């Protein structure tokens, strides 16, 4: 009974880790898209100023 519970617990942990990693990948893709969009918006500003579009 104990080995069966350990296998089920391991499967549950691996499933949770896989879901969390997939969610983190999607968040990373969204952040990258926003970052690249910031460069495009800054380049199309047309004000002639050079600088960063972000504050940090």
UniProtKB/TrEMBL annotation:
Transmembrane domains' residue ranges? 26-44
Protein name from the UniProt record? Hydrophobic protein
- Organism for this UniProt entry: Streptomyces melanogenes
Give the UniProt keywords, A-Z. Membrane, Transmembrane, Transmembrane helix
